[in-house]
Amino acid sequence: MLFGSDYPVITPDRWLADFAKLEIKPEVRPKILKHNAIRLLRLEKT
User: Do 2 and 31 touch, CB atoms closer than 8 A?
Assistant: First the structure.
């Protein structure tokens, strides 16, 4: 799963506020917001 704001229909601030209300384990949140995209796009330093 990756972060997506649906901007301009839903602003990033609104998306993040709604995301914060979800019952998701704290260790999963950074994966959705950042780490999965880094891995998918191969932006990790090797």
Answer: no
Q: What letter represents residue 18's amino acid?
A: D
Angle at 35 between CA 31 and CA 41, to 5 degrees: 135
Report whether the peptide linkage leading into residue 8 is cis, meaning its omega lies within 30 degrees of zero. yes
Residue with tokens 């191969």: 42
SS3 string, 1-46, reads CCCCCCCCCCCHHHHHHHHHCCCCCCCCHHHHHHHHHHHHCCCCCC
pLDDT in tens, 9-34: 998 889 889 999 999 999 999 999 99
Every domain of the chain and the residues it spans = 1-46
Enter the pTM of the model.
0.71
